[in-house]
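Next comes a single protein record:
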Amino acid sequence: MKRVLITNDDGISAPGIEALTSLASRIFEEVWVVAPREQASQIGHRVTTDTPIGIDKRGERRFAVDGTPADCTRAGLHLMGDKRPDWVWSGINHGGNLGHHDYFISGTMAAAREAAFFGIPALGASQYMKAGIDLNWEKAIERLETAFRQLQEKGGDPGVFWNVNLPHLEPEAAEPETIFCEPERAPLDVIFDYDEDISSLIYRGSYHDRSRIKGSDVDICFGGNVAVTRFEV
């Protein structure tokens, strides 16, 4: 394969995009990175159409964008000109993007979805996080590469994009399986406390305590395996 466009929602300086770029350099001949200048998580598929979008060249085929993740996909395709990418990769997000609720909130997935609108196969990758366990990025990209090779066999078709969630495992844990599954349909628990002193609601929901129907992507990832779901536009 020749070209990949890489973006994310954690920002161009995030360790996850560095890990993803490292993996891409093993697979693709040409790697483009077009990512938000600053962190831009949980803003869904917002795009910028009424103000200029600033672009800062950070190196060969590497650009920081004053915009959203979906903006970055659009900007990247423009910057690449007639060099259409074979894939668009988004991530690796610092935290899971599991279930339908995350799917619509996530900037990571919005960037992948935007590519699918243009008929380009895309992948959004996320690393579920557990407190108290160090994150091994090299292990993460090894697991992502295995998942990518397997999902390629199922087709990188136009209009299709994939959501890959990596488990956060203890160093001595057995290597996970890659499991193709359906997204969890139960919503996240939306729990607030009211703070009278500041007249505000404060979110108190726990991501780790969310619903996990057996066989869903939440169940698969929380259970220690790589969860892969397929979406179409």
Summary: The two ends are 23 Å apart (CA to CA).
